[in-house]
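Tokens as discussed.
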């Protein structure tokens, strides 16, 4: 204690009181020292057990090299559980917020799904959907930009659908019932993706799960896409089909599918229906294999 403090204590008579207070403070420090709990990660050693850690040193990253913690394991476990719950709640809130930002309800959910699909070719859409998937809310600018993009995509989709409908209505009517019948027979016999070759062209069934389910694709023997035959048996040709004679060839095939297949086999030595080389004398003479002839309804 300084001489000035002694002087004041002498004047006031508080010297004894000050000494008693100092004793109590010292006693309190000893009695109420915080309890320590051995660090479970390092076993009290203060050293990281897995080698050098992400902090670039050998200290235990849980207790920071002290070897102990001042909270018990149960308390820390509860704190971690609460933090995890808050994280889940925050993620749910962000997802709900994003749905609302994209229009709310079913519309918002549908737009987010459209955003996911657009992410296959758009980096912006991919990054935005990843943000949504990670439970992070969109900003107002992000939501507005995504909405503009999706609205534009929807407008383009409708315009294409309208143009396709116009083309469908304007397509010339050709009797392709024979082609339809043989493909129905092939599917009924177990073929999932039947393919038929004749008159310089290849006709194949579109995937059942695709956008053109029920259509028949038409290509040249050089694998150039000519167009497609709709379920209503109308041929929608592309620009490359002009002057190719594809419509005339389809009419010839539809009039006599088996005859066209036989001519193909006789000319190429391959089966029109499976594309394999004809090796059996009877098949060579017939121009088509017996199994294919049966399964295609010939």
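Sequence:
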């Amino acid at each position: 204690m300084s001489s000035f403090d002694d002087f004041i204590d002498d004047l006031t008579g508080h010297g004894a009181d000050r000494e008693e207070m100092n004793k109590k403070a010292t006693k309190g420090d000893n009695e109420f020292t915080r309890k320590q709990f051995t660090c479970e990660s390092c076993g009290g050693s203060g050293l990281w057990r897995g080698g050098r850690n992400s902090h670039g040193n050998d200290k235990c990253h849980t207790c920071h090299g002290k070897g102990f913690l001042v909270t018990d394991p149960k308390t820390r476990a509860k704190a971690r559980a609460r933090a995890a719950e808050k994280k889940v709640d925050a993620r749910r809130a962000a997802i709900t917020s994003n749905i609302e930002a994209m229009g709310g309800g079913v519309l918002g959910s549908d737009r987010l799904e459209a955003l996911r699909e657009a992410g296959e070719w758009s980096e912006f859409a991919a990054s935005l959907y990843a943000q949504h998937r990670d439970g992070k809310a969109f900003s107002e600018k992000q939501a507005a930009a995504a909405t503009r993009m999706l609205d534009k995509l929807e407008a383009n989709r409708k315009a294409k659908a309208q143009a396709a409908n116009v083309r469908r209505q304007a397509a010339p009517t050709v009797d392709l019932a024979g082609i339809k019948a043989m493909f129905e027979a092939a599917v009924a016999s177990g073929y999932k993706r039947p393919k038929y070759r004749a008159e310089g062209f290849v006709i194949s069934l579109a995937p059942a799960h695709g956008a053109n389910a029920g259509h028949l694709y038409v290509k040249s023997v050089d694998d150039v896409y000519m167009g497609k035959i709709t379920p209503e048996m109308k041929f929608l040709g592309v620009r490359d089909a002009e002057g190719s004679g594809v419509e005339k060839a389809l009419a010839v095939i539809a009039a006599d599918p088996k005859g066209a297949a036989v001519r193909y086999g006789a000319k190429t030595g391959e089966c029109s229906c499976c594309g394999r080389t004809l090796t059996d004398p009877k098949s060579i003479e017939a121009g088509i294999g017996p199994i294919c002839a049966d399964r295609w309804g010939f």
